[in-house]
Amino acid sequence: MKNRQTDKQLIKNIAITIIIFIIVESLLYGGLLSRQFRSLLIPVCINVILAVSLNLTTGFLGELTLGHAGFMSVGAYTGALVTLNMNLPMAIEFPVALFAGGIAAAIFGVIIGVPVLRLRGDYLAIVTLAFGEIIKSIINSMKITNGAMGLSGIELHANYKHFAYVFALTVITIFAIKNMVHSRQGRAVCAIRDNYIAAEAVGISVSRFKVMAFVVAAFFAGIAGVIYSHNVGTLKPTTFDYNKSIEILVIVVLGGMGSIRGSVIAAIILTVLPELLRSADEFRMLLYAIVLIVMMIFNSSQIKQRILSSEILSRLRRVKKEA
Amino acid sequence: MKKVKKIMALGLAATLTFASMTGCSSKSDTNSGSNSDSGTASGTSDETFVIGGIGPLTGDAASYGISVKQGAEIAVKEINEAGGVKVGDKTMQLELKFEDDQATADKAVTAYNTLMDGGMNVLLGCVTTGSCLAVVDLAKEDNILMLTPSGSAAEITKNDNVFRLCFTDPLQGETMAEHMITDLHYKNIAVIYKNSDEYSTGVYEAFAAKVAELGGTITTAEAFADGEDFNTQLTSIKGTDAEAIFAPIYYNDAAHVVTQAADLSITLPFFGSDGWDGILDTVTDKATVEGATFLSPFFSGEETAADFVANYEKAYNTTPDQFAADGYDGVYVFKSALEQAKTTESADLISAMTQIKVDGLTGTGISFSATGEPQKAAKFIKIENGEYAAAK
């Protein structure tokens, strides 16, 4: 019984993914998408990957981290340096860059994971914030990353023309993290969040799972970084400051801690929203902030709960079931 | 519960699709519009030529983008009121569309594409270097004439469709080194620069190379990454036998540097790069910057700029800075290119760029080399009695 249900769920998820993909692709190749929205496709995917991976540490592990942009920058620079120095066809170069970027970020995830074992809550947040800044300073002072001038002329292996690959990577990320959360490891991670002492008492190795969550999140942030660098073509250390980390955190909080679907939707909204507000000119960022506040209030209010459990929706559901 | 979420998700997806659809319908509108612009040669007046602009209007660097935008707006208004631009046998009106990029590379790309949706003919931008680098290859793909008012990194003009109105970072460093050593006969110079900033590093590196070439000595080069405390760097400068301090940094950092230097009773003269423009409004005590000299393409006290300054002050209630002047000149450069090319075709406009000579606020007889660099004289500004003055 249970198996059949999960199978159904899986098929439904795959169907939704394929439908979204077909819609976007046909819009893209049918020339129906304006250039503005075309150039938003990849940033949306990047933010989805970042938000979903940050959700693993913030939402499921329950630790507030403010250094996600640091992992992203490690991946971005590693990936960019790989393609800049390899000069091979994209089919070889880009997967290598993705892999290298992800692994490099994961290694940094281990490095940050070790001191993190000793800390929780606010302390951890500050350590990760500091860690992000350290990475920025290191990149700033290294020769190979070209310091403050940054890298440019990175081949555009991940721009809108390669949307299919980026979309596939995004879907893989979502499925990987979703499956991980529902696996034995994921339940252990959630148990640590819910009751640290109880988790330890039943024999869960808290430190092991904490590091694991960090490393996985860092790996995917690194992947997002590689996509970023191959979409824009230029990299500067200042792009990855703590503002970027907070931007990702905002997406996760808006989507709901521990809700992957929420993260995906919030990432889409928060990437597209500032662009939709372009016509507001100088009030754009003000409007954006106001919309953000309203959405946050709505998200945590009774109104949303009431709407979700209201008569109309449940009736709709019934109608749908009958049909 | 889960299903509801799914419905909501689908609803959102639908809204987004709808949003992009509406986006494209406006695109096809403007496309047909611009097609008739360039396609039909028959001379009807009142056609518009769209100048796109990209720069930071919000965020940390907002003041630069806003200045460029406002300067360009003044120029567009002037030209339109004077009857527009004569392009071949027809007269065209100019229209400025300026998009915000928050000084980030990825936002610059979306801003560029938004402008292309809006039927942009030429690009005045980007204001910041990072954004320029992200956009240059796109502009090459579309073969759009691009003129950056203030992006100063050397690689920006690598493509033949890109031109620059300001000096490059290295050129600023070299000019200042020549001025300090050849004109003012300083031998020992201390430097304080921001190593997390590409502009500051770029100016410093070229400055150091030129000083060495001219036989001067850099007693110490003090770097900082961020922050507002420069006591360590300044104390170390004080301990050397430097005769002057060169600070290729932006005015907000420079304001802290000069104030703290005064506190440490350092009396050495300061020299700066064009990032110093605007420092008098930032420092609390104007005496601390007295005697400082910096390089700037534009000086609002000049006679030739009087009209522009008056119009600008009337419209925006503030004195224009060099970025405003760059924006203003940029529009006039496009105007002469249009008049020279006698057509709105991008390829002709690009080849016209190397043939024109423009008398602007940032220099008289500005011309452009095929490599995209401007040819104009540098201006030195000295702070005297708490006011900007042209340095002798």
From TrEMBL, chain A:
Topology versus the membrane, per the UniProt entry?
Multi-pass membrane protein
Q: Record keywords: Transmembrane included?
A: yes
Q: Which InterPro entries match?
A: ABC_transp_permease (IPR001851), LivM-like (IPR043428)
Q: Give one Pfam family.
A: BPD_transp_2
This protein's major location comes to: membrane
Q: Where are the transmembrane segments?
A: 12-34, 40-62, 69-88, 94-116, 123-142, 162-181, 211-228, 248-273, 285-303
Q: Where does it localize?
A: Cell membrane
Ordered alphabetically, the record's keywords are: Cell membrane, Membrane, Transmembrane, Transmembrane helix
Tell me which GO cellular component terms the UniProt record holds.
plasma membrane
Extract the GO molecular function terms from the UniProt entry: branched-chain amino acid transmembrane transporter activity
UniProt protein name: Amino acid/amide ABC transporter membrane protein 2 (HAAT family)
Q: Which organism is it from?
A: Lachnotalea glycerini
UniProtKB/TrEMBL annotation, chain B:
Q: List this protein's GO terms for biological process.
A: amino acid transport
Pfam families registered for this protein in UniProt: Peripla_BP_6 (PF13458)
Does the record bear Cytoplasm in its keywords?
no
Region named Disordered:
25-44
Q: Which key words tag this protein in UniProt? A: Amino-acid transport, Signal, Transport
What's the superkingdom here?
Answer: Bacteria
Domain Leucine-binding protein residue range list: 50-386
The family note in this entry says:
Belongs to the leucine-binding protein family.
Name of the molecule in the record:
Amino acid/amide ABC transporter substrate-binding protein (HAAT family)
Q: Which organism is it from?
A: Lachnotalea glycerini
Question: Which classification does the entry list for the species?
Answer: Bacteria, Bacillati, Bacillota, Clostridia, Lachnospirales
